[in-house]
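Weekly structure sync, notes
Attendees: PL (lead), two postdocs, one rotation student
Agenda item 3: pending single-chain targets
PL asked that the sequence for the first pending target be pasted directly into the notes so everyone works from the same version. It is reproduced below exactly as submitted, 316 residues in total.
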Amino acid sequence: MTILVTGGAGFIGSAVAKKLVERGDRVLILDNFNDYYDPQLKRDRVNVFLKGVDVALFEGDIRDVALVEKIFSREKVEKVVHLAAMAGVRNSLEHPLQYVDINIIGTTVLLEASRKHAIENFIYASSSSVYGKNEKLPFSEADSVDHPISPYAASKKADELLAHVWSHVYGLPTTGLRFFTVYGPWGRPDMALFLFTKHIFEEKPIEVNNFGKMSRNFTYVDDIVSGVLTALDANLPYDIVNIGGDRENTLLEFIEEIEKNVGKVAHKKLMPLPAGDVVSTVADISKLRALGWAPTTRIDAGIKNFVEWYHHYYHV
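Predicted structure, written out during the meeting:
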C-alpha cells in the first residue's frame, strides 16, 4: 500500500518507514527537519539508516495545507502513520505556543486531508504523558486523562479528542498510540538514555531526577515499530491503545545497564522531580496484546544495542 509517514526522519518514524518498505509497502516521508535537536542526525537517519531503502522524501511542514493536499492528491495515499510533532515534556514548558501550534494544528490538517481523500486508516502518536498525575497503576486506556501536567501532554490529549471527532463524525478510522518511554539506536539527543550515555562516556555528572526513585516501562524501538504496524494493519474504526514494555524497571536499573555497557561508573547528581514529570509510568498493554502484539526486547539487550550504535556514530 502507499503509506505516508509524517516525521519520517525522526527516531520512530525512520524505523517505521524502513520496516514498511522491507515488507513491500510504498512509503512517503514528510519531515521538516527542524532544529529542536541537531538536524544532521535527522539527515543521517535518511541518508545512512535508510540508505538503499526506497522511500520518497517530501521536505516540508505538516501545517502546510497546500503541500499536504498535493502529496495526498498526487501520490494517492492510502494510509497514514502520523508521527510528526514537537516532542519533549520539559521543552514544552518553555515553548508552549509552539507545541499547540505544531501538534494540534498540524494534526488537524492531516486529519482533514485524510477525511477528504478517504484514507483507510490513520495511525497517530499520542503519549503516556496524557495520564498526568494518575496514581492507579498500570495506566489503562479506560482511565481518565483529563489532568495533563505539561503543554506537550495537553497537546497529545487534544490530538486524541480531534481524532475522536474525525472518526465519529466523518467516519475516518483512527488509532492513537500512547507510547511509553521509547529508546534505542538513532534516538533523540534530549532523551535520558542518550544524555546519560554521552555524559558517562565524557565522565561528566548525570542528573538523576527524583533522587532515582522513578520507574518506567522502557520500550525498545523495534517493539514500538511492530506495535505501530499491528495497529496499522488492524484497521480499527476508532481506538486509543497503550504501547509499552511488559516489565517495569527503575531508573537506577536503567543507569546500571548503561554503566555496564559503557564500562564506566556514572557520577550521579541526585535531583528533585522536575515540573511536568511523573514518578512512574506503567502500561496496561492488554488491548494491543489482543491484536497479536507483544514486546520482546529487555533493557539489557536494548541498551547494549544503543551504546554500540552511539560508540560507532560518534566515534567515541
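Discussion points:
- Residues 127 and 179 are 5 Å apart (CA to CA).
- The longest strand covers residues 121-127.
Action: rotation student to compare against the earlier draft before next sync.
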